[in-house]
Amino acid sequence: MDKLQITGGRPLEGEVRISGAKNATLPILAATLLADGPVTISNVPHLQDVTTMIELLGRMGVTVTIDEKLRIEVDPTTIREQFAPYELVKKMRASILVLGPLLARYGEADVSLPGGCAIGARPVNIHVAGLQAMGADIHIENGYIKARTGKARAGRLKGARLVLETVTVTGTENLMMAAVLADGETVLENAAREPEVVDLANFLIAMGAKIRGAGTDRIVIEGVERLHGCSYEVMPDRIETGTFLVAAAITGGHVRTKNTCPAYLDAVLLKLQEAGAKLAQGDNWIELDMRGRRPKAIDVRTAPYPAFPTDMQAQFAALDAVADGVGTIIETVFENRFMHMLEMRRMGAEIRLEGNTAIIKGVPKLMAAPVMATDLRASASLVLAALVAEGQTVIERIYHIDRGYESIEEKLSGLGAQIRRVPGR
Ligand code: EPU
User: Taking the C-alpha atoms of 100, 406, 372 and 345 in order, what is their torsion angle to the nearest 10 degrees?
Assistant: First the structure.
Protein backbone atom coordinates (compact mmCIF):
# COMPACT_ATOMS: atom_id res chain seq x y z
CA MET A 1 0.00 0.00 0.00
CA ASP A 2 1.28 3.47 -0.91
CA LYS A 3 2.42 5.89 1.78
CA LEU A 4 2.94 9.63 1.82
CA GLN A 5 6.17 11.09 3.16
CA ILE A 6 5.87 14.72 4.15
CA THR A 7 8.53 17.00 5.63
CA GLY A 8 6.89 19.94 7.33
CA GLY A 9 7.85 23.55 7.68
CA ARG A 10 7.44 25.20 4.27
CA PRO A 11 4.79 27.93 3.77
CA LEU A 12 2.72 27.07 0.69
CA GLU A 13 2.84 29.61 -2.16
CA GLY A 14 1.23 29.72 -5.59
CA GLU A 15 -1.86 28.68 -7.52
CA VAL A 16 -3.73 25.41 -7.54
CA ARG A 17 -6.46 24.25 -9.90
CA ILE A 18 -9.47 22.77 -8.17
CA SER A 19 -10.97 19.59 -9.63
CA GLY A 20 -14.59 18.71 -10.25
CA ALA A 21 -16.58 17.77 -7.15
CA LYS A 22 -16.49 14.11 -6.13
CA ASN A 23 -19.83 14.31 -4.35
CA ALA A 24 -21.53 15.83 -7.40
CA THR A 25 -19.88 13.47 -9.90
CA LEU A 26 -21.03 10.32 -8.09
CA PRO A 27 -24.79 11.07 -8.14
CA ILE A 28 -24.54 12.50 -11.67
CA LEU A 29 -22.93 9.28 -12.92
CA ALA A 30 -25.68 7.28 -11.18
CA ALA A 31 -28.32 9.56 -12.74
CA THR A 32 -27.08 8.75 -16.26
CA LEU A 33 -28.96 5.45 -15.76
CA LEU A 34 -32.19 7.43 -16.15
CA ALA A 35 -31.49 8.63 -19.69
CA ASP A 36 -32.75 7.17 -22.98
CA GLY A 37 -29.52 8.04 -24.77
CA PRO A 38 -25.83 8.87 -24.29
CA VAL A 39 -24.73 11.53 -21.80
CA THR A 40 -21.41 13.42 -21.81
CA ILE A 41 -19.95 14.69 -18.54
CA SER A 42 -16.94 17.00 -18.21
CA ASN A 43 -14.82 18.23 -15.30
CA VAL A 44 -14.93 14.73 -13.81
CA PRO A 45 -12.18 14.31 -11.21
CA HIS A 46 -9.78 11.41 -11.55
CA LEU A 47 -10.45 9.68 -8.23
CA GLN A 48 -10.79 6.16 -6.89
CA ASP A 49 -14.46 6.67 -5.96
CA VAL A 50 -15.27 7.84 -9.49
CA THR A 51 -13.50 4.78 -10.89
CA THR A 52 -15.57 2.58 -8.58
CA MET A 53 -18.83 4.18 -9.80
CA ILE A 54 -17.73 3.70 -13.44
CA GLU A 55 -16.86 0.08 -12.65
CA LEU A 56 -20.31 -0.37 -11.12
CA LEU A 57 -22.03 1.02 -14.24
CA GLY A 58 -19.80 -1.16 -16.43
CA ARG A 59 -20.68 -4.24 -14.40
CA MET A 60 -24.35 -3.61 -15.19
CA GLY A 61 -23.56 -3.51 -18.91
CA VAL A 62 -23.59 0.29 -19.31
CA THR A 63 -21.02 1.55 -21.85
CA VAL A 64 -18.62 4.13 -20.43
CA THR A 65 -15.93 5.74 -22.57
CA ILE A 66 -13.47 8.55 -21.98
CA ASP A 67 -12.73 10.89 -24.89
CA GLU A 68 -9.53 12.79 -25.72
CA LYS A 69 -10.65 15.80 -23.64
CA LEU A 70 -11.15 13.53 -20.59
CA ARG A 71 -14.91 13.84 -20.87
CA ILE A 72 -16.85 10.78 -19.85
CA GLU A 73 -19.51 9.46 -22.16
CA VAL A 74 -22.08 7.12 -20.66
CA ASP A 75 -24.47 5.11 -22.82
CA PRO A 76 -26.96 3.57 -20.40
CA THR A 77 -28.99 1.86 -23.13
CA THR A 78 -26.66 -1.16 -23.21
CA ILE A 79 -27.56 -2.08 -19.58
CA ARG A 80 -28.01 -5.83 -18.99
CA GLU A 81 -28.81 -6.11 -15.30
CA GLN A 82 -30.00 -3.85 -12.47
CA PHE A 83 -27.57 -5.13 -9.91
CA ALA A 84 -25.02 -3.53 -7.55
CA PRO A 85 -22.87 -6.29 -6.01
CA TYR A 86 -21.54 -6.30 -2.45
CA GLU A 87 -17.92 -6.30 -3.61
CA LEU A 88 -18.37 -2.79 -5.09
CA VAL A 89 -20.81 -1.35 -2.55
CA LYS A 90 -18.47 -2.32 0.30
CA LYS A 91 -15.72 -0.31 -1.41
CA MET A 92 -17.93 2.76 -1.70
CA ARG A 93 -21.17 3.50 0.13
CA ALA A 94 -22.22 6.04 -2.51
CA SER A 95 -22.99 3.01 -4.75
CA ILE A 96 -26.42 3.17 -3.05
CA LEU A 97 -27.08 6.10 -5.42
CA VAL A 98 -27.94 3.67 -8.24
CA LEU A 99 -30.98 2.39 -6.30
CA GLY A 100 -33.36 5.28 -7.11
CA PRO A 101 -32.46 5.59 -10.82
CA LEU A 102 -32.58 1.82 -11.47
CA LEU A 103 -35.95 1.47 -9.83
CA ALA A 104 -37.42 4.51 -11.56
CA ARG A 105 -36.15 3.57 -15.02
CA TYR A 106 -36.35 -0.22 -14.99
CA GLY A 107 -38.81 -1.06 -12.22
CA GLU A 108 -36.30 -3.23 -10.41
CA ALA A 109 -33.01 -3.00 -8.54
CA ASP A 110 -30.93 -5.37 -6.41
CA VAL A 111 -28.42 -3.29 -4.50
CA SER A 112 -26.20 -4.55 -1.71
CA LEU A 113 -26.83 -2.91 1.66
CA PRO A 114 -23.80 -0.81 2.63
CA GLY A 115 -22.21 -2.10 5.82
CA GLY A 116 -20.59 -0.32 8.74
CA CYS A 117 -18.44 2.73 8.19
CA ALA A 118 -15.43 4.32 9.86
CA ILE A 119 -17.29 7.57 10.63
CA GLY A 120 -20.70 6.43 11.85
CA ALA A 121 -23.54 3.93 11.42
CA ARG A 122 -24.79 5.62 8.24
CA PRO A 123 -28.02 3.66 7.67
CA VAL A 124 -30.06 4.05 4.45
CA ASN A 125 -33.50 3.74 6.07
CA ILE A 126 -34.62 7.12 4.72
CA HIS A 127 -33.77 6.16 1.13
CA VAL A 128 -35.74 2.93 1.51
CA ALA A 129 -38.75 4.46 3.32
CA GLY A 130 -39.04 7.19 0.66
CA LEU A 131 -39.08 4.68 -2.19
CA GLN A 132 -41.65 2.57 -0.35
CA ALA A 133 -43.86 5.65 0.07
CA MET A 134 -43.60 6.05 -3.72
CA GLY A 135 -45.06 2.57 -4.11
CA ALA A 136 -41.95 0.41 -4.32
CA ASP A 137 -42.01 -3.08 -2.92
CA ILE A 138 -38.76 -3.50 -0.99
CA HIS A 139 -37.33 -6.49 0.87
CA ILE A 140 -33.97 -6.99 2.45
CA GLU A 141 -32.72 -10.44 1.49
CA ASN A 142 -29.25 -11.91 2.03
CA GLY A 143 -27.76 -8.47 2.58
CA TYR A 144 -29.35 -7.02 -0.54
CA ILE A 145 -32.06 -4.39 -1.00
CA LYS A 146 -34.45 -5.97 -3.48
CA ALA A 147 -36.73 -3.30 -4.86
CA ARG A 148 -39.55 -3.60 -7.39
CA THR A 149 -42.19 -1.15 -8.58
CA GLY A 150 -44.94 -3.73 -9.16
CA LYS A 151 -46.98 -4.28 -12.29
CA ALA A 152 -50.13 -2.50 -11.06
CA ARG A 153 -48.73 0.90 -11.96
CA ALA A 154 -47.18 -0.26 -15.22
CA GLY A 155 -43.80 -0.35 -13.55
CA ARG A 156 -43.74 3.32 -12.55
CA LEU A 157 -43.16 4.80 -9.13
CA LYS A 158 -45.88 7.13 -7.90
CA GLY A 159 -45.30 10.73 -6.84
CA ALA A 160 -45.65 11.31 -3.08
CA ARG A 161 -45.06 13.90 -0.37
CA LEU A 162 -42.01 12.77 1.58
CA VAL A 163 -40.93 14.35 4.84
CA LEU A 164 -37.34 13.26 5.41
CA GLU A 165 -36.69 12.35 9.03
CA THR A 166 -33.08 13.62 8.95
CA VAL A 167 -31.38 15.87 6.44
CA THR A 168 -29.57 13.39 4.21
CA VAL A 169 -27.55 14.30 1.13
CA THR A 170 -27.52 11.01 -0.78
CA GLY A 171 -31.04 10.24 0.53
CA THR A 172 -32.33 13.48 -1.04
CA GLU A 173 -30.43 12.68 -4.24
CA ASN A 174 -31.71 9.09 -4.47
CA LEU A 175 -35.32 10.16 -3.97
CA MET A 176 -35.01 13.10 -6.38
CA MET A 177 -33.64 10.72 -9.03
CA ALA A 178 -36.47 8.26 -8.37
CA ALA A 179 -39.10 11.02 -8.58
CA VAL A 180 -38.08 12.45 -11.95
CA LEU A 181 -39.60 9.47 -13.80
CA ALA A 182 -42.44 8.84 -11.33
CA ASP A 183 -46.10 9.25 -12.14
CA GLY A 184 -47.20 12.62 -10.71
CA GLU A 185 -45.68 15.12 -8.33
CA THR A 186 -43.22 14.38 -5.54
CA VAL A 187 -42.46 16.86 -2.78
CA LEU A 188 -39.31 16.35 -0.71
CA GLU A 189 -39.61 18.18 2.61
CA ASN A 190 -36.57 18.67 4.86
CA ALA A 191 -34.42 18.08 1.78
CA ALA A 192 -30.64 18.55 1.88
CA ARG A 193 -29.57 21.95 0.49
CA GLU A 194 -25.99 21.05 -0.41
CA PRO A 195 -24.65 22.55 -3.66
CA GLU A 196 -24.06 18.98 -4.91
CA VAL A 197 -27.83 18.36 -4.67
CA VAL A 198 -28.36 21.48 -6.80
CA ASP A 199 -25.75 20.31 -9.32
CA LEU A 200 -27.51 16.95 -9.63
CA ALA A 201 -30.87 18.74 -10.06
CA ASN A 202 -29.38 20.91 -12.82
CA PHE A 203 -28.05 17.82 -14.54
CA LEU A 204 -31.47 16.12 -14.33
CA ILE A 205 -33.09 19.30 -15.69
CA ALA A 206 -30.62 19.26 -18.60
CA MET A 207 -31.92 15.73 -19.34
CA GLY A 208 -35.52 17.03 -19.38
CA ALA A 209 -36.59 16.61 -15.72
CA LYS A 210 -38.98 19.06 -14.07
CA ILE A 211 -37.57 20.10 -10.70
CA ARG A 212 -37.95 23.27 -8.67
CA GLY A 213 -36.67 24.29 -5.27
CA ALA A 214 -33.30 22.47 -5.32
CA GLY A 215 -31.06 24.33 -2.87
CA THR A 216 -34.01 24.88 -0.50
CA ASP A 217 -35.41 22.38 1.98
CA ARG A 218 -38.48 21.80 -0.23
CA ILE A 219 -37.89 20.25 -3.63
CA VAL A 220 -40.84 19.71 -5.97
CA ILE A 221 -40.48 17.23 -8.81
CA GLU A 222 -43.03 16.72 -11.55
CA GLY A 223 -42.45 13.26 -13.02
CA VAL A 224 -41.91 12.99 -16.78
CA GLU A 225 -42.13 9.89 -18.99
CA ARG A 226 -38.59 9.90 -20.27
CA LEU A 227 -35.28 11.72 -20.02
CA HIS A 228 -32.90 12.36 -22.90
CA GLY A 229 -29.11 12.50 -23.13
CA CYS A 230 -27.23 15.78 -22.58
CA SER A 231 -23.78 17.30 -21.97
CA TYR A 232 -22.95 18.58 -18.52
CA GLU A 233 -20.01 20.07 -16.63
CA VAL A 234 -19.61 19.07 -12.97
CA MET A 235 -19.30 21.86 -10.36
CA PRO A 236 -15.95 22.52 -8.62
CA ASP A 237 -15.11 20.63 -5.44
CA ARG A 238 -15.79 22.90 -2.47
CA ILE A 239 -14.18 20.53 0.02
CA GLU A 240 -10.97 20.24 -2.00
CA THR A 241 -10.98 24.06 -2.21
CA GLY A 242 -11.42 24.38 1.54
CA THR A 243 -8.68 21.83 2.18
CA PHE A 244 -6.13 23.79 0.10
CA LEU A 245 -7.14 27.03 1.80
CA VAL A 246 -6.54 25.46 5.21
CA ALA A 247 -3.22 24.13 3.89
CA ALA A 248 -2.25 27.72 3.06
CA ALA A 249 -3.47 29.02 6.44
CA ILE A 250 -1.82 26.34 8.55
CA THR A 251 1.59 26.81 6.88
CA GLY A 252 1.48 30.62 6.98
CA GLY A 253 1.33 30.65 3.19
CA HIS A 254 -0.27 32.52 0.30
CA VAL A 255 -2.34 30.43 -2.13
CA ARG A 256 -4.87 31.07 -4.87
CA THR A 257 -7.39 28.30 -5.61
CA LYS A 258 -8.55 28.50 -9.25
CA ASN A 259 -11.59 27.01 -11.04
CA THR A 260 -13.62 27.05 -7.88
CA CYS A 261 -16.79 28.76 -6.65
CA PRO A 262 -16.55 31.01 -3.55
CA ALA A 263 -20.34 31.05 -3.06
CA TYR A 264 -20.29 27.41 -1.91
CA LEU A 265 -17.82 28.11 0.87
CA ASP A 266 -19.42 30.89 2.94
CA ALA A 267 -19.24 29.09 6.31
CA VAL A 268 -15.68 27.89 5.70
CA LEU A 269 -14.38 31.29 4.55
CA LEU A 270 -15.93 32.94 7.61
CA LYS A 271 -13.99 30.58 9.87
CA LEU A 272 -10.75 31.15 7.98
CA GLN A 273 -11.23 34.89 8.44
CA GLU A 274 -11.85 34.35 12.16
CA ALA A 275 -8.56 32.42 12.22
CA GLY A 276 -6.87 35.57 10.95
CA ALA A 277 -6.53 34.83 7.24
CA LYS A 278 -6.73 37.60 4.65
CA LEU A 279 -9.07 36.52 1.87
CA ALA A 280 -9.74 37.82 -1.61
CA GLN A 281 -12.06 36.32 -4.19
CA GLY A 282 -13.36 36.62 -7.73
CA ASP A 283 -16.04 34.77 -9.69
CA ASN A 284 -14.07 31.53 -9.80
CA TRP A 285 -11.07 31.94 -7.49
CA ILE A 286 -10.26 32.44 -3.82
CA GLU A 287 -6.93 33.65 -2.48
CA LEU A 288 -5.75 33.24 1.08
CA ASP A 289 -2.84 35.08 2.67
CA MET A 290 -1.53 34.09 6.09
CA ARG A 291 2.12 35.07 5.65
CA GLY A 292 4.01 35.81 8.83
CA ARG A 293 1.09 34.99 11.12
CA ARG A 294 0.04 32.11 13.34
CA PRO A 295 -3.65 31.11 13.04
CA LYS A 296 -5.99 31.97 15.92
CA ALA A 297 -7.98 29.09 17.41
CA ILE A 298 -11.58 28.92 16.24
CA ASP A 299 -14.74 27.10 17.27
CA VAL A 300 -16.59 24.98 14.74
CA ARG A 301 -19.93 23.20 14.84
CA THR A 302 -20.78 20.98 11.89
CA ALA A 303 -24.30 20.81 10.47
CA PRO A 304 -25.96 20.37 7.06
CA TYR A 305 -25.40 23.07 4.41
CA PRO A 306 -25.30 26.08 4.52
CA ALA A 307 -23.75 25.57 7.99
CA PHE A 308 -20.16 24.41 8.46
CA PRO A 309 -19.57 21.10 6.57
CA THR A 310 -18.65 17.91 8.40
CA ASP A 311 -16.28 17.21 5.49
CA MET A 312 -14.12 20.20 6.62
CA GLN A 313 -14.12 19.40 10.33
CA ALA A 314 -10.93 17.33 10.41
CA GLN A 315 -8.98 19.95 8.45
CA PHE A 316 -9.98 22.68 10.92
CA ALA A 317 -9.00 20.40 13.79
CA ALA A 318 -5.48 20.36 12.29
CA LEU A 319 -5.56 24.16 12.10
CA ASP A 320 -6.64 24.44 15.74
CA ALA A 321 -3.90 22.01 16.74
CA VAL A 322 -1.25 24.64 15.90
CA ALA A 323 -3.33 27.78 16.51
CA ASP A 324 -2.96 30.39 19.19
CA GLY A 325 -5.56 29.59 21.88
CA VAL A 326 -8.16 26.90 22.50
CA GLY A 327 -10.68 25.84 19.86
CA THR A 328 -13.75 23.63 20.21
CA ILE A 329 -14.98 21.36 17.46
CA ILE A 330 -18.48 19.90 17.70
CA GLU A 331 -19.45 17.17 15.22
CA THR A 332 -23.24 16.83 14.89
CA VAL A 333 -23.60 14.95 11.57
CA PHE A 334 -21.66 11.72 12.16
CA GLU A 335 -21.22 10.04 15.52
CA ASN A 336 -17.70 8.69 15.09
CA ARG A 337 -15.75 11.18 13.04
CA PHE A 338 -12.85 11.91 15.42
CA MET A 339 -10.33 9.19 14.54
CA HIS A 340 -7.91 11.81 13.17
CA MET A 341 -7.83 13.45 16.61
CA LEU A 342 -6.19 10.37 18.08
CA GLU A 343 -3.60 10.27 15.29
CA MET A 344 -2.88 13.99 15.66
CA ARG A 345 -2.28 13.47 19.36
CA ARG A 346 0.56 11.17 18.32
CA MET A 347 2.05 14.19 16.58
CA GLY A 348 1.92 16.19 19.79
CA ALA A 349 -1.51 17.82 19.44
CA GLU A 350 -3.26 18.61 22.73
CA ILE A 351 -6.79 17.36 22.19
CA ARG A 352 -9.41 16.37 24.74
CA LEU A 353 -12.46 14.45 23.55
CA GLU A 354 -15.83 14.65 25.28
CA GLY A 355 -18.52 12.82 23.31
CA ASN A 356 -19.00 14.68 20.04
CA THR A 357 -16.82 17.60 21.17
CA ALA A 358 -13.08 18.02 20.76
CA ILE A 359 -11.31 20.67 22.77
CA ILE A 360 -8.03 21.55 21.11
CA LYS A 361 -5.32 23.61 22.74
CA GLY A 362 -2.98 24.89 20.07
CA VAL A 363 0.71 24.04 20.43
CA PRO A 364 3.50 26.06 18.77
CA LYS A 365 4.84 22.99 16.94
CA LEU A 366 3.65 19.52 16.00
CA MET A 367 6.19 16.71 15.70
CA ALA A 368 6.45 14.25 12.83
CA ALA A 369 5.25 10.71 13.58
CA PRO A 370 4.14 7.65 11.68
CA VAL A 371 0.35 7.96 11.39
CA MET A 372 -2.49 6.12 9.73
CA ALA A 373 -5.34 7.47 7.61
CA THR A 374 -8.74 6.14 8.68
CA ASP A 375 -11.12 7.86 6.28
CA LEU A 376 -10.96 10.38 3.51
CA ARG A 377 -11.18 13.67 5.40
CA ALA A 378 -9.21 12.28 8.36
CA SER A 379 -6.35 11.57 5.97
CA ALA A 380 -6.53 15.13 4.62
CA SER A 381 -6.16 16.47 8.15
CA LEU A 382 -3.08 14.33 8.73
CA VAL A 383 -1.52 15.70 5.54
CA LEU A 384 -2.20 19.23 6.83
CA ALA A 385 -0.73 18.45 10.24
CA ALA A 386 2.33 16.92 8.55
CA LEU A 387 2.85 20.08 6.47
CA VAL A 388 3.62 22.00 9.67
CA ALA A 389 5.17 19.25 11.79
CA GLU A 390 8.86 19.23 12.55
CA GLY A 391 10.54 16.34 10.72
CA GLN A 392 9.27 13.73 8.30
CA THR A 393 5.79 12.30 8.78
CA VAL A 394 4.84 9.05 7.07
CA ILE A 395 1.11 8.57 6.47
CA GLU A 396 -0.07 5.03 5.85
CA ARG A 397 -3.26 3.79 4.19
CA ILE A 398 -3.44 6.74 1.86
CA TYR A 399 -5.83 4.88 -0.44
CA HIS A 400 -8.39 6.78 1.62
CA ILE A 401 -7.05 10.09 0.32
CA ASP A 402 -6.99 8.84 -3.28
CA ARG A 403 -10.74 8.30 -3.02
CA GLY A 404 -11.38 12.02 -2.85
CA TYR A 405 -8.33 14.17 -3.67
CA GLU A 406 -7.04 14.25 -7.23
CA SER A 407 -3.20 14.16 -7.47
CA ILE A 408 -2.82 15.57 -3.97
CA GLU A 409 0.96 15.17 -3.84
CA GLU A 410 1.42 16.86 -7.24
CA LYS A 411 -0.83 19.75 -6.31
CA LEU A 412 0.89 20.25 -2.94
CA SER A 413 4.39 19.97 -4.43
CA GLY A 414 3.33 22.59 -6.98
CA LEU A 415 2.76 24.89 -3.99
CA GLY A 416 6.19 24.12 -2.57
CA ALA A 417 5.41 21.35 -0.09
CA GLN A 418 7.94 18.59 0.49
CA ILE A 419 5.75 15.59 -0.17
CA ARG A 420 6.46 12.26 -1.83
CA ARG A 421 4.41 9.17 -2.54
CA VAL A 422 6.22 5.98 -1.65
CA PRO A 423 4.76 3.05 -3.55
CA GLY A 424 3.93 0.18 -1.24
CA ARG A 425 4.37 -3.51 -1.76
N1 EPU B 1 -28.88 9.08 7.90
C2 EPU B 1 -29.82 8.25 8.44
N3 EPU B 1 -30.61 7.52 7.59
C4 EPU B 1 -30.48 7.58 6.23
C5 EPU B 1 -29.50 8.44 5.70
C6 EPU B 1 -28.71 9.18 6.56
O7 EPU B 1 -29.96 8.16 9.65
O8 EPU B 1 -31.21 6.88 5.52
C9 EPU B 1 -28.01 9.89 8.81
C10 EPU B 1 -26.52 9.50 8.70
O11 EPU B 1 -26.21 8.38 9.49
C12 EPU B 1 -25.83 10.76 9.17
C13 EPU B 1 -26.78 11.86 8.66
O14 EPU B 1 -28.01 11.23 8.38
O15 EPU B 1 -25.76 10.80 10.57
C16 EPU B 1 -26.32 12.62 7.45
O17 EPU B 1 -25.79 11.73 6.50
P18 EPU B 1 -26.01 11.89 4.94
O19 EPU B 1 -26.99 10.87 4.46
O20 EPU B 1 -26.27 13.31 4.59
O21 EPU B 1 -24.57 11.48 4.39
P22 EPU B 1 -24.31 10.77 3.01
O23 EPU B 1 -25.30 11.21 2.03
O24 EPU B 1 -24.10 9.32 3.23
C25 EPU B 1 -22.80 12.65 1.97
C26 EPU B 1 -21.41 12.76 1.46
C27 EPU B 1 -20.45 12.69 2.64
C28 EPU B 1 -20.76 13.83 3.58
C29 EPU B 1 -22.22 13.76 4.03
C30 EPU B 1 -22.65 14.92 4.90
C31 EPU B 1 -21.60 11.83 -0.76
C32 EPU B 1 -21.29 10.73 -1.72
N33 EPU B 1 -21.18 11.68 0.51
O34 EPU B 1 -22.90 11.39 2.62
O35 EPU B 1 -19.14 12.84 2.10
O36 EPU B 1 -19.93 13.76 4.72
O37 EPU B 1 -23.07 13.73 2.87
O38 EPU B 1 -22.46 16.11 4.25
O39 EPU B 1 -22.19 12.83 -1.15
C40 EPU B 1 -16.80 12.61 2.06
O41 EPU B 1 -16.81 13.14 0.92
O42 EPU B 1 -15.74 12.42 2.72
C43 EPU B 1 -18.06 12.20 2.66
C44 EPU B 1 -18.13 11.35 3.68
Answer: -100
